[in-house]
Predict the structure of ATP synthase subunit a, chloroplastic.
Amino acid sequence: MFDFFKASFSPIFLGEIKIGEHFYWNLLNTNNALLLLHGQVLITVTLVCSFIILFSFIANNQLKATPDGLQNASEYVTEFIRDLTKTQIGTEVNYLNWVPFTGTIFLFIFISNWTSLLPFKLISLPQGELAPPTSDINVTVALALLTSIAYFYAGIRKKGVLKFFKARLNPLTFLEDFTKPLSLSFRLFGNILADDLAVNVLVLLVPILIPVPLMLLGLFTSAIQALVFSTLSAAYIGESLEDHH
């Protein structure tokens, strides 16, 4: 009976609970599931980050007084993110300090979500396929934890440790600090995973034309999810900066 309990709750057993096939890198050539790297996520995350860096460099390499082309698109995105951050954090503090964080979160999620519609399926892997990074729970939880760290950092920096955590003595406030990252991560993960699975099923069943409307709808919902995540992140930071009397 003890052996059954031990086997049932071992890390390897829990690691086998997954959705679909995944590609792992076994760098140490061991059978320990805790030492496996999620290869397909690292590949897609690298591609997304490389695209954002390359686009930023090309668009802002030679700035013009009258923007056009990629510079115009870059400035539009920057202005949009700045207005979003200003609306959520307010002007009582220097909201511009948080524009890079909000912008990074928004762009990463936005581009990651749209990768579900790119021809990643044509790239052959030993196991699994290249899926959007945000369809992996590890990525969305990491993004949510980054928001939580920013949330606590902002409040502690402005109010000090004692004053900030004194407000956390309220049971409801204490509970919110745990539910915020959970809701952020699972909302993004669930929506993107469901959309990616629906498109994959339709492509397998009816590969011509029929999946296109669903893919176009996926473009819209993917953008909405990026907007919701970044808006809530900025709102949480703004909440931690508020002075409660």
User: Anything to note?
Assistant: The first strand starts at residue 24 and ends at 25. The CA atoms of residues 72 and 173 lie 42 Å apart. The beta strands are 24-25, 37-38.
